[in-house]
């Protein structure tokens, strides 16, 4: 009986990782940065050690942020899609964090705060 629950827990764990990867469209952070750097129409820069990739898609802008090697949440890719709707700016954010949960949670909280500042709600 215990092995049945273990298999369920293991399946949920793997499903959770898969959903995170699907959220950014790449299996790993390394895959994302490598493929985005080679993609036509992207602009790459380094700001404060972070690799930033701008990707213009259709009528919206997608901004990718990749943690520097020394960051506690490294490796992480944060994908933010800026959308304007009803004269308001919205940011749809997904991420793939392959570091420890505590560091990932802290980083996501920091990005959520930054997003609220950008949208003018904080």
Main attributes?
122 residues; alpha+beta; five-stranded antiparallel β-sheet; 3 helices; 5 strands; 34% strand; globular; disordered N terminus
Describe the main β-sheet briefly: 5 strands, antiparallel
Our estimate of the beta-strand percent is: 25-35%
Shape: globular
Q: Would you tell me the structural class of the helices and strands?
A: alpha+beta
Helix-strand string: HHEEEEEH
Strand order, sheet with most strands: 1-2-3-4-5
**DSSP summary: helix tally:** 3
Oligomer class: single chain
Question: What is the CA-based Rg, rounded?
Answer: 16 Å
- Share of helix among residues? 40-55%
Number of domains: 1
Count the strands? Answer: 5
The N- and C-terminal alpha carbons lie at a distance of: 50 Å
Q: Which blocks of ≥5 consecutive residues have pLDDT under 50?
A: 1-22
Mean pLDDT, to the nearest integer, reads: 81
Description:
This protein is α+β, with helices and mostly antiparallel strands and 122 residues long. The protein has one domain. It is built from 3 helices and 5 strands, in the order ααβββββα. Strands 1-2-3-4-5 form a 5-stranded antiparallel β-sheet, with helices on both faces. A hairpin with a 2-residue loop joins β4 and β5. The protein is globular.
Summarize the structure.
With 122 residues, the protein is of the alpha+beta class. The chain has one domain.
Q: Secondary-structure blueprint of this entry?
A:
Layout: H1 2-24, H2 29-38, E1 42-47, E2 50-57, E3 60-66, E4 76-85, E5 88-97, H3 101-118
Antiparallel strand pairs: 1-2, 2-3, 3-4, 4-5
């Amino acid at each position: 009986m215990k092995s049945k629950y273990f298999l369920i827990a293991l399946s949920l764990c793997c499903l959770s990782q898969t959903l995170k990867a699907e959220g950014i469209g790449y299996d790993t952070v390394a895959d994302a940065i490598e493929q985005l750097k080679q993609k036509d129409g992207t602009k790459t820069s380094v700001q404060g050690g972070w690799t930033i990739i701008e990707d213009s898609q259709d009528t919206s802008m997608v901004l990718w942020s990749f943690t520097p090697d020394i960051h506690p949440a490294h490796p992480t890719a944060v994908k933010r899609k800026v959308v304007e709707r009803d004269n308001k700016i919205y940011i749809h954010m997904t991420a793939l964090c392959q570091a420890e949960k505590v560091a990932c949670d802290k980083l996501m909280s920091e990005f959520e705060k930054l997003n609220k500042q950008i949208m003018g709600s904080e």
